[in-house]
Amino acid sequence: MTTFLLVRHALHEFGGERIAGRTPNVHLSPDGLRQADALADRLAGIRIDALYASPILRCQETAAKVAEPHGLPVQTDEAITELGFGDWTGARLGDLGTEDRWKRFNAFRSGTRAPNGELFLETQLRIVRFVLDLRERHEGQTVALVSHADVIRAALLHFLGIPMDQFLRLEISPASISTVAVADYGPWVLGINHTGELPRLPDPL
Q1: The CATH number of the domain covering residues in 2-194
Q2: 89: which DSSP letter?
Q3: 40-75 per-position pLDDT tens digit
């Protein structure tokens, strides 16, 4: 069995008003830096054997904070990068609210692609494939993945067996931790969107 800590990055400079997407050079905000420090403190006493992060700067900055107490390198992988929002990257959410395609994107996520962007099904495929590959590489270990809300939702929906179009029913807050153990005969979702003390993790089998 391999235990995965699915960690969302802390707050960034765009706040909740704009879609940061894959925009380069968007740093953590001052509040986000404080969140990342608190996240690192929460995880300091948890065994982490390997840490992987999205290449997006806000994830790299969050991961660096988490890795430091453990003396771990941050391994970067495109498989856990942000969903590709295409032409909506950098857009203000208030401006998108009246667009029919945006409404469809949030109601029928499994069948609506962001303009010149990525289909959510493609996002789910890459994150689930990555988790299953890591499960083979890190048998009996605990692995942290620092990624993005929609990527974490995509993984959780798969492991919970929930239809993709229900994705907004899962809250994934900044600097939250969702925990999934993957064993030979299936996954075990241990927690979703923890922003406080983590539950006790299972002993490796």
Answers
A1: 3.40.50.1240
A2: T
A3: 999 999 999 999 999 999 999 999 999 999 999 999
